[in-house]
Amino acid sequence: MFRQAREQQGFWTVRPKFTHVSIVDNTMSKRTRFLVDPKVQWSIAARVLGHWSIFLMCLICINVCVRVFAAVINEPFWGAFQSAIVAQAPIVMVMFVLLPVFLRDTLVMSNRFAGPMYRLRTALSALAGGESISAIKFRTGDFWLSAADDFNIVLVQLNSLKAENEQLRNEINALRDEQVAV
């Protein structure tokens, strides 16, 4: 909305807009690296592991309490508590079997935003270093397609301004040469 208002006022030259389809590359191969940004992705995995641990402890506590309260009528408290703890073995085993599935899925899914941000960061770094780059592309299914869209618009504008700057520099040099010749 803000960009449209400035374009209507003539603040910016209207450039062709990139669509999300133009920045998604269906021909890109699948990611070959399991972790694109290990620091970010392992911190997410650690958070999932922490939540999984808390969930497991809560699940066991609630299940033990329910079993103890239900069994304390027929047997002594300590016996009911011990049998309730032993009864948690299947739940604990299932949760430990599911843990690698949860962590792997979290890491794989995190590639959908870590990959695009990695490409965006490397493109910005290359631009900051004065390199000439082409439009960035994200894979099908990646998050933040609009970030590539916006980056590509800014890249077109930057390249246009650089070309205009070079043209003006050449005109100024030509005018100087004319003045020196006169």
Can you walk me through this structure?
It is built from 6 helices and 2 strands. The protein is an all-alpha fold. The chain has a two-stranded parallel ribbon. Helix 3 (38-71) packs antiparallel against helix 4 (77-86) and helix 3 (38-71) packs antiparallel against helix 5 (89-128). It is rod-shaped.
> How many strand elements?
2
Number of helices: 6
- Helix content range of the residues, please? over 70%
Q: Give the strand line-up of the largest sheet.
A: 1-2
- Termini separation comes to 51 Å
Q: Quick one: overall form?
A: rod-shaped
Using the CA coordinates, give the radius of gyration.
30 Å
Strand content: under 5%
Low-confidence stretches at least 5 residues in length (pLDDT < 50)? 1-22
Mean pLDDT: 84
Sheet with the most strands? 2 strands, parallel
In N-to-C order, the SSE pattern is HHEHHHEH
Class by alpha and beta content:
mainly alpha
Query: Domains counted in the coordinates: how many?
Result: 1
